[in-house]
Amino acid sequence: MTDEPDFDALFAAAQPVQARAYAPYSRFKVGAALLADDGAVYSGCNVENASYPVGVCAEAGAISAMIAGGGRAIRALLVLGDGDTLVTPCGACRQRIREFAAPETPIAIAGPNGIRARFSLAELLPASFGPDNLRQ
Ligand code: THU
């Protein structure tokens, strides 16, 4: 995809879901929104759990929403978090994104006032293992 994705729309979609995040333990609310191959925007927030490792990241929620909604590929993704540092996807989520995105897929990292940085998936997860590795 060569067209510039509408990151403003992804930011607008991530804001309300970030506000609804369930993060009573970390108090760190995250929202994620992605543009899928079906043209729709899907979003998710982190959902924590009293059994801490069971908590789910915002990116995982957005991917679940995409699959349930009929999308099959990520064209662009935005992660929105608070604080002074970049809220980049965790290692596990980089692999989750890899399942549905190309190496050049843009990933924007936003704070409350807008986008702070932008990466390709390949920058966040170089030399990755993906679905193609299983096609032989
Ligand atoms: N978190 C996300 O949902 N996405 C990220 O990209 C970084 C971290 C969540 C997981 C946990 O609920 C909280 O932020 C603190 O790590």
Task: Count the domains.
Answer: 1
Shape: globular
CATH structural class = Alpha Beta
The assigned CATH architecture is 3-Layer(aba) Sandwich
Q: H/E element string?
A: HEEHEHEEH
* Arithmetic mean of pLDDT: 97
What's the β-strand tally? 5
Strand content: 15-25%
How is the main sheet built? 5 strands, mixed
CATH topology: Cytidine Deaminase, domain 2
Class inferred from helices and paired strands: alpha+beta
CATH superfamily: Cytidine Deaminase, domain 2
Strand order across the biggest sheet? Answer: 2-1-3-4-5
Give the distinct bound molecules. Answer: tetrahydrodeoxyuridine
- Residue windows where pLDDT falls under 50 for at least 5 positions: none
End-to-end Cα distance, whole Å, is 26 Å
Active site: 59
EC number: 3.5.4.5
Function: This enzyme scavenges exogenous and endogenous cytidine and 2'-deoxycytidine for UMP synthesis.
Catalytic activity: 2'-deoxycytidine + H2O + H(+) = 2'-deoxyuridine + NH4(+); cytidine + H2O + H(+) = uridine + NH4(+)
